[in-house]
Design a protein that fits this description.
By secondary structure, this protein is α+β, with helices and mostly antiparallel strands. It folds into 4 domains: 191 residues, tricorn interacting facor f3 domain (Immunoglobulin-like); 133 residues, Neutral Protease Domain 2 (Neutral Protease, domain 2); 110 residues, Immunoglobulin-like, CATH 2.60.40; 245 residues, Alpha Horseshoe (Zincin-like fold), CATH 1.25.50.10. It has 25 helices and 33 strands. Helix 19 packs parallel to helix 21. The longest helix has 34 residues. The protein starts with a strand and ends with a helix. The structure holds beta-alanine and zinc ion.
């Protein structure tokens, strides 16, 4: 395979203006006819060969301006069709191909899922349908005619508006769709099958009525209420927050059970993995409800950030993904708790992106090269990309960010552009100094921001000495300092925010007073150099600094803030994120110190002040309960391993488990109270207050069950038996399943018996068992491969069982190598069925350098040696 480099980008020689597609869908094969009007690129080479991508498609005919192209006029290879001497432009290109969607297990291009036809074209799936210039900077207007057997495929959908439909001979029928907007082929979609719809309507800000339809098999329609609610909320939010109105009269969502990704933003015909559409209180947890809200929002928001303005090439993926993730994060924050959402997003970043950025797969938000684009749909491009977008907003303010967005749309509507264009719009709309901010796109690695603080009681000044350092990463041994927004506040002795009136930033003294002459409580400092000093003046008492408020930059913060000050922040910080972060910082330090105690064979002790801090948080009735649930949850094992020079999964697991049990026994009564006072009402409600109660109850129950005492286990069993919604049922099951034994086996079987007909619920059942830390769990997971609940061809099943297993530090990284061997075997099998799913699974190996030599050897042998 060839490595493709960003620096080698060249415009295509030809553009396509209009594309007429005709699909004759069949059981044996499907015939695709395309009729393309080809024009030259103004700067392209005249009569240059026209190169079309095509994989696993059979060429049936090729015509130029109505005439068959003779042998010798074209050449065909496994991946390309080259028209050697195209005529002068404009010309008509007609291609007929034959494909076999029913045998397509890659789930790219056109394929079948439970009997229905559907497509997935991003990034390079369209080339599995027909020969085409499969690159995002070729944007054309599409019309799509679909014909199929009417009884098998009564519903025929594609992008845009339905222009015409009717019956044909031999029980067939057709539908003609026209998309008035230019689009790259990765946004093409087609669905044909037996589907029912939930119909609704949205009136846009300018008074246009838009028909909304969510399509699923008929029996699942009752489970689409929340998805429809989410869609309407997203449409309204994008109008209110970004002034973006929907641009067609119809918006379709189709849910399919077999889907590689979560969902896809095809123009006006979003296709979703069913798990991100279908929800009922009995079958979906609060986390599922929240994910549906976020992803329905995400795909809808792509209509402007991705579809109307798209990427010039795939190196720019973060242009649309980072931006759209940022937008969906903001949407979810506005719909629920901002602090809780921020905490969840930062946890995700730390668990997945920081390790990626420190390992062999480290790459910049805008990669410099790729071999297979499918492998670059990463947490770095998505989540770190979203952090980069968030930093613009932090630096420019919400108002300034909106100005930048408006200019971006004004300049680039219906264009395929780059991250530099986005940067330029933000800079120009605000006449802002964003020097060395662009490096966030090109430099990989998580910056380490070290801050030393000191207070001068006589001068009433508070000083910060900042140092930024970006560690060497794969292919990038040295780095330049970047512009890092550092949001900071200072707390007085009563826990109040001190007014910040002026700051010296190394160059000049800047006033921070507002128009009324009052100081601010949070200021965003610009850390631009490798070493930089800031001095706050008029600070009348020794403050406790609250650094990097709201996680204002995706960095690893190292500071000299003492434990007692962290406990003070945990109790008082007005920035809720930092309040949580203070507890996490102490938790991380504590567990890592226990890890080294374990490694040295020493006895383990718990820090009582930490436990008391957690007790105060747990019992603080003025706090949001979902926030409390997050604040009393310890840092994850993977986050802790990421902080170690050489990760020791066994010691991390033992130390963390020790702390869990110590907290559980110290706060036993408080946890019992939390469980007993936060049970759900009979009727499930998806609102913040009820979700918060369930979250707190479930975390508390998890702690109690860790004690494995008859009373706490009986409590968990009662909660399981009386649960009226999945959130509480699965949490009680997880609580019980922590402890090996008969009860565990019994309740797991009972759960399966109850839900065996619901594939999405049995995924949870698979994942729960796969993730288990029970010693030697690889055997159970291997046995589950043969269970009727598992299906190797369904990505969700693989993600639950195989992906779930890789999330268990102790079992996946087991010293006997059985975990690595299991994954190695699975990847080999999966690669033959679905290479995208296989490559997602193989990424679990990418952290191998983090481990001891024994594990490194095992991983290398299994991963690379085969
Ligand atoms: N574009 C692929 C799916 C998503 O990120 O929306
Ligand atoms: Zn996206």
């Amino acid at each position: 395979p060839k490595e493709i480099f960003l620096k080698d980008y060249e415009k295509p020689d030809y553009y396509f203006e209009t594309v007429h597609l005709n699909f004759a869908l069949g059981e044996e094969h499907t015939i695709v006819h395309s009729n393309i009007s080809v024009v030259s690129h103004p700067e392209g080479g005249a009569n240059a060969p026209l190169k079309l991508d095509g994989v696993d498609v059979k060429l049936r005919s090729l015509k130029v301006n109505g005439e068959d192209v003779k042998d010798g006029g074209y050449s065909l290879s496994a991946k390309q069709l080259i028209l050697h001497r195209p005529p002068s432009t404009p010309f008509k290109l007609e291609i007929t191909t034959e494909i076999e969607p029913q045998n397509n297990t890659t789930l790219e291009g056109l394929y079948k899922s439970t009997g229905n036809f559907c497509t997935q074209c991003e990034a390079e799936g369209f080339r599995r349908i027909t020969f085409y210039q499969d690159r995002p900077d070729v944007m054309a207007k599409f019309t799509t005619r679909i014909e199929a057997d009417k009884s098998l495929y009564p519903v025929l959908l594609s992008n845009g508006n339905l222009i015409e439909q009717g019956d044909l001979s031999e029980g067939r029928h057709y539908a003609l769709w026209e998309d008035p907007f230019k689009k790259p082929c990765y946004l093409f979609a087609l669905v044909a099958g037996q589907l029912a719809s939930r119909d609704d309507e949205f009136t846009t800000c300018s008074g246009r009525k838009v028909s909304l339809r969510i399509w699923t098999p008929a029996q699942d329609i009752p489970k689409t209420v929340h998805a429809m609610y989410s869609l309407k909320a997203a449409m309204k939010w994008d109008e209110e927050v970004f002034g973006r109105e929907y641009d067609l009269d119809l918006f379709n969502i189709v849910a399919v059970p077999d889907f590689n990704m979560g969902a896809m933003e095809n123009k006006s015909l979003n296709i979703f993995n069913s798990r991100l559409v279908l929800a009922s209180p009995e079958t979906a947890s609060d986390a599922d409800y929240a994910a549906i809200l976020g992803v329905i929002g995400h795909e809808y928001f792509h209509n402007w950030t991705g579809n109307r303005v798209t990427c010039r090439d795939w190196f720019q993926l973060s242009l649309k993904e980072g931006l759209t993730v940022f937008r969906d994060q903001e949407f979810s924050s506005d719909m629920g708790s901002r602090a809780v959402k921020r905490i969840a997003d930062v946890v995700r970043l730390r668990i997945s992106q920081f390790p990626q950025d420190a390992g062999p797969m480290s790459h910049p938000v805008r990669p410099h090269s790729y071999i297979k684009m499918d492998n670059f749909y990463t947490v770095t491009v998505y989540e770190k990309g979203a952090e980069v977008v968030r930093m613009y907003q932090t630096l420019l303010s919400k108002k300034g960010f909106r100005k930048g967005m408006d200019l971006y749309f004004e300049r680039h509507d219906s264009q395929a552009v780059t991250c530099d264009d986005f940067y330029a719009a933000m800079r120009d709309a605000n006449t802002a100094n964003l020097a060395n901010f662009g490096l966030w796109y090109s430099q990989s690695g998580t910056p380490i921001l070290t801050i030393y603080t000191s207070y001068d009681a006589s001068a009433h000044t508070f000083q910060l000495k900042c140092r930024q350092e970006i560690p060497p990463t794969a292919g990038q041994p040295t780095k330049e300092p970047m512009l890092i927004p550092l949001a900071i506040g200072l707390l007085g002795s009563k826990g109040q925010d001190l007014p910040l009136t002026s700051v010296y930033d190394g160059a000049s003294l800047k006033s921070l007073k507002d128009d009324c002459g009052n100081g601010v409580t949070t200021v965003v400092l610009r850390v631009e150099k490798a070493e930089q000093e800031f001095i706050f003046t008029d600070i009348l008492e020794r403050p406790v600094p609250s650094l990097l408020r709201g996680f204002s930059a995706p960095v690893r913060l190292v500071s000299d803030v003492a434990d007692e000050d962290l406990l003070f922040l945990l109790a008082h910080d007005s920035d809720e994120f930092n309040r949580w972060e203070a507890g996490q910082t102490i938790g991380r330090k504590l567990i890592l110190s226990l890890v080294s105690a374990l490694q040295q064979g020493k006895e383990l002790f718990i820090n009582k002040d930490f436990v008391n801090g957690l007790r105060s948080t747990l019992c603080n009735s003025s706090l949001d309960k979902e926030f409390i649930a997050k604040a009393i949850t310890l840092p994850a094992e993977s986050e802790l391993m990421d902080l170690m020079e050489v990760a020791d999964p066994d010691a991390v697991h033992t130390a963390r488990r020790f702390v869990v049990k110590q907290i559980a026994s110290s706060l036993r009564q408080e946890f019992l109270d939390a469980v007993n006072t936060n049970r759900s009402n009979e009727v499930y409600e998806f609102n913040h207050e009820s979700m918060a109660r369930r979250a707190l109850k479930n975390v508390s129950l998890g702690y109690l069950a860790s004690l494995n005492e008859p009373e706490t286990i009986q409590l968990a069993l009662n909660e399981y038996n009386t649960a009226t919604n999945m959130t509480e049922q699965i949490a009680a099951l997880a609580a019980i399943a922590q402890n090996p034994g008969e009860l565990r086996t019994e309740v797991l079987s009972k759960f399966y018996e109850q839900w065996q007909k619901d594939s999405l619920v049995t995924n949870k059942w698979l994942a729960l068992q796969a993730l288990s830390d029970i010693p030697g769990n690889v055997k159970n997971v291997e046995a589950l491969l043969d269970h009727p609940a598992f299906d190797m061809k369904n990505p969700n099943k693989v993600y639950s069982l195989v992906g779930g297993f890789c999330g268990s530090a102790v079992n996946f990284h087991a010293k006997d190598g059985l975990g690595y061997r299991f994954l190695g075997d699975m990847v080999l099998k999966l690669d033959k069925i679905n290479p995208q799913v296989a490559s997602r699974m193989v990424s679990a190996f990418s952290k191998w350098k983090k481990f001891d030599l024994h594990r490194q050897e095992l991983a290398k042998w299994i991963h690379m040696g085969r």
